[in-house]
Amino acid sequence: MLVFLLIRLLSGEINTFFTSFLSGMRGPTRKRPCCVDVTNLDMSPEVVGETYREQASSHPCVKAIIFNTEYGQLCSDPKAQWVQDLTAKMKKVQ
Description:
The chain has helices at residues 2-10, 81-89, and strands at residues 21-22, 25-26, 29-30, 34-35, 47-55, 64-69, 72-76, 91-92. By secondary structure, it is α+β, with helices and mostly antiparallel strands. The strands form 3 sheets. Strands 7-6-5-8 form a 4-stranded mixed β-sheet, with helices on one face. Strands 1-4 form a two-stranded antiparallel ribbon. Strand 6 and strand 7 (72-76) form a beta hairpin. Residues 31-90 form the Chemokine interleukin-8-like domain.
């Protein structure tokens, strides 16, 4: 599976979806990092755990479903069928 992922990374298919987060500061508290891009490629084999997080759109952040993977957080397109199927099987976290 790792070889498959590396090939996809090198071919540019995944781009920066594992690292497409921005951190910001507002006042004395830090904001949670956010997704600025999403993937619709089926990455369900890479997802670990039984939870996900929804992110609302608020510039520059985009609407996303965030899954955990062995390689970090994955920013996924909420409209992608594989994302809808996987979230239906999982429990949402706040």
